[in-house]
Specification:
The chain is of the alpha/beta class. It has one domain. The chain contains 7 helices and 4 strands. It has helices spanning 5-12, 28-36, 53-57, 62-65, 79-88, 121-132, 138-158; strands at residues 41-44, 51-52, 71-74, 96-99. The chain has a 4-stranded parallel sheet. The protein is globular.
């Protein structure tokens, strides 16, 4: 059964590019693009230098920060693995980074996190797209909730009382 929220994003977003890997070699092409035009990229990952993305939502000139050509990078991994990827790919540390100060409450009930303001990748992407590029993500969020309902039904049916 599908549990990876990036797969759901792939179903609903046409401008989504997924690159799998962990080490610098896995992301060499992207690293070259980023270092060539760093102003065209930002990273959604909380760190000591990250800014609250909500501050960008409220600025009058958010179109300059998040133009249609601007690429926002998300790391889809457990928090431990994401931190490892952050350290293995120093080019990520050169980007403007964003974190969430006031995200919506996470709805991902299949997996839990102890991370404050932690959301699934799908929830993080929809939060950012809705608020920076005015994308209607309601269909993706509905799909997300339906996927969880199916997963819970599958678990109930496989463990009868």
């Amino acid at each position: 059964m599908l549990k990876n929220t990036v797969r759901l994003l792939q179903l609903g977003l046409k401008n989504l590019q997924v690159i799998q890997g962990e080490s610098a070699e896995d992301f060499s092409e992207l690293a070259i693009e980023v270092t060539t035009a760093p102003s065209q990229f930002s990273l959604c990952y909380p760190n000591i230098n990250s800014l609250a993305i909500e501050s960008a939502f409220s600025t009058a000139d958010k179109s300059a920060q998040f133009s249609q050509q601007h690429t926002i990078i998300f790391i889809d991994a457990s928090w431990r693995k994401a931190l490892k990827m952050w350290h293995l790919n120093p080019w990520l540390q050169q980007l403007t980074s964003w974190h969430f100060d006031n995200p919506p409450e996470g709805q991902y009930r299949i997996r839990q996190t102890k991370q404050k303001n932690g959301l699934s990748t799908l929830e993080a992407v929809t939060y950012v797209l809705t608020n920076t590029k005015q994308v209607d993500c309601s269909a993706l969020l509905t799909l997300f909730l339906k996927m969880q309902q199916l997963r819970f039904a599958e678990v109930r049916n496989s463990n009868p009382e």
